[in-house]
Write a structure and sequence with these properties.
Distance between the termini: 21 Å
Number of helices: 13
Keywords: Cytoplasm, FAD, Flavoprotein, Methyltransferase, NAD, NADP, Transferase, tRNA processing
Radius of gyration: 22 Å
InterPro entries: FAD/NAD-bd_sf, MnmG-rel, MnmG-rel_CS, MnmG_N, TrmFO
Protein name: Methylenetetrahydrofolate--tRNA-(uracil-5-)-methyltransferase TrmFO
GO molecular function: flavin adenine dinucleotide binding; tRNA (uracil(54)-C5)-methyltransferase activity, 5,10-methylenetetrahydrofolate-dependent
Strand order of the largest sheet: 6-2-1-7-17-16
CATH class of the largest domain: Alpha Beta
EC number: 2.1.1.74
CATH superfamily of the largest domain: FAD/NAD(P)-binding domain
Number of strands: 17
Strand content: 15-25%
Order of helices and strands: EHEEHHEEHEEHEEEHEHHEEHEEHEEHHH
Number of domains: 2
Length: 445
Amino acid sequence: MTEKLHIIGGGMAGSEAAWQAAQAGIPVVIHEMRPHVGTFAHQTGNLAEMVCSNSFRSDDSEQNAVGLLHWEMREAGGLIMEMADAHSLPAGGALAVDRDQFAEGVTARLREHPLVTIEEGEIAALPDDGHWIIATGPLTSGNLAEAIRAETGAEALAFFDAIAPIVYADSVDMDKAWFQSRYDKGETEEERKAYLNCPMDRDQYEAFIDAILAADKTEFHEGETAGYFDGCLPIEVMAERGRETLRFGPMKPVGLTNPHQPDVKAYAVVQLRRDNALGTLFNIVGFQTKMKYGAQTDVFRMIPGLEDAKFARLGGIHRNTFLNSPTLLDDQMRLKSRPNIRFAGQITGVEGYVESAAMGLLAARFAIAEITGKELTTPPAETAMGALVTHITGGAEAKTFQPMNVNFGLFPPVEGLKGGRRGRKDRYKAYTDRAKELWKGWLAQ
């Protein structure tokens, strides 16, 4: 095979795309600007570095859309899921990973592959010929983003992603905190105790909200707008929406019993999730923030159990750029004005590690078919990948297009099933059964 596939960006989408193509016998060149050109959020030059959460979310392939996406990627021989499984951590019903071991594993597998070449350095312009996938993610370099804007004739849309802080486990006061997954979820004792919980009474919660609202925050640069994706809201934005918002969001106290005070119901609970295999680091779940560093340490040490917390990393904020894909991309993820270029990952308007990797997988398979002269249809909209790609390439309303996680609301309904909460379990099982059968058929093309 003489034709190469060039991939710009070595994140989740770019890494998965490279693996799929190389496994199909296509020579691949990954163009990654790190570590020569850094970003606000990345700490290393590894491929597939995780910069926000270390969770791939639910792994339930029968009742959860993202769990179904996990299943589809495993069926397609996905590298991202293989490495996630190899470096998983206890997380109840979720799939969480040791972020360093995961990225090192992905990097090693791609560097060792005889058909993969990694070229370090920034690509600043859109290529005129050859087969290309742009998978530069939320932190696309300014030069390349400008080239994309110039080509599309439209301003790239932007929202802001905030990074949650990470705490050293040995600095948590275990006389106040305890290990328990919500509703004791998980099949093993380790999974049922995958989270650290820090309880608050009403007075502590009210004082905490006051401190968040009063804290110094990062200012936006001139011309930037604070349009957040609802799945990754900074805690101060949630607090500004109402004093009870956090208590019904990441700080909800349900499904937990404090062994230190079993008869006392917490008013709110802060959860921390294990962040590495050693169990020495925990990230504060749902606590993405744009508070300044000094304010963060003061505010987070108000949390019972974290009074003497030591932080391995504080939270931060960065700009996240994505295309208006329903307008700009065709159903094979090609840029309509330059069909030699495909886009994949978060820049297409999907949100989440798994969704990004899934779009890399699809873009690569479309490119493989094109390079080898084969026909490959878009996956059925009844599958998780099909639902996502259909949404971003035409199913969504272009005027109001915003980043989207995979969810059953994107799937065509199954006829004859009961709606509402009572019928949800049967409905979700029907969605996933149908999707699995159709996905196997699509892979067999």
